Amino acid sequence: MGAGHAHKLYRHGHSPVHELPPHCKIAATFAFVVVVVSTPREAVWAFAGYAVLITAAAAAARIPAGFLLRRMLIEVPFVLFAVLMPFVSQGERVEVLGMSLSVSGLWGAWNVLAKGTLGVAASVLLASTTELRALLLGLQRLKLPPLLVQIASFMIRYGDVITDELRRMSIARRSRGFEARGVRHWGVLAKTAGALFIRSYERGERVYLAMVSRGYAGSMPVIDDVTATGAQWAYSAVLPVTALAVCLMGWTL
């Protein structure tokens, strides 16, 4: 994990949130999501409070609203599922705009939309302020099993390697006048996929042998030992602790 690595979700900046150690941000995001999920769905006002907290955190990180919202589009399939729930759920019915909807389905749709949207927003905010390499170091610092951290690290790097290999193969096909226009070209695309698999497998073997020759014995060396001060932990705890206070009021009021 010594090489730098950027991703499209990350937005370079120098805000107080960007400068927090990655393991502090990961722990704060996880705690915030747990608190949101633990909130009763009937406490509608509490979810509005969580949205305000996320907005404040995004403002502190200097992440534009448009940047955040565009990357939250990954939630669209879950939104479509939630929209169907009032129509297919059983139980007591209620008339809304001339449509017969399930009361339990409406509450279920609200539960999925509210908690899912807040969870996605928190995750996108984390990814927007933390590089992938830093996320892996943070997980390592939080004592996630080393094997899982290594798998995640290799997956990220090989994802880029395979994508770049596929791009070069696509350029080679186009330079020879090939353009997929129908079913009759599927054979060429299938051969491309097969060649990509073989090349990726062979490259993986070469990389592994190179690592072994350099002393790899099942664990990656720790190059950057990321630490956090008490003040940084306190700053990162503002979001989940405030959310916890809102959650407790949601259960009692």
Mean pLDDT: 86
How many individual β-strands? 2
Task: Determine the structural class based on helices, strands and strand pairing.
Answer: mainly alpha
The Rg value, from CA coordinates, equals 23 Å
Helix and strand string, N-terminal first?
HHHHEEHHHHHH
Number of helices: 10
Distance between the termini: 48 Å
**Can you tell me the overall shape?**
globular
Low-confidence stretches: 1-5
**What spatial order of strands do you see in the largest sheet?**
1-2
β-strand amount: under 5%
Note the main sheet. 2 strands, antiparallel
Helix content: 55-70%
InterPro entries: ABC/ECF_trnsptr_transmembrane (IPR003339), ECF_CbiQ (IPR012809), ECF_transporter_component (IPR051611)
Pfam family, one: CbiQ
Transmembrane segments: 43-60, 72-89, 109-130, 233-251
Membrane topology: Multi-pass membrane protein
Secondary structure elements and their pairing?
Layout: H1 22-38, H2 44-60, H3 65-71, H4 76-88, E1 93-96, E2 99-102, H5 103-129, H6 132-141, H7 146-175, H8 186-213, H9 230-236, H10 238-252
Antiparallel strand pairs: 1-2
Helix pairs in contact: 1-5, 1-6, 1-10, 2-5, 2-10, 4-5, 6-7, 7-8
Organism: Streptomyces katrae
Membrane topology: Multi-pass membrane protein
InterPro entries: ABC/ECF_trnsptr_transmembrane, ECF_CbiQ, ECF_transporter_component
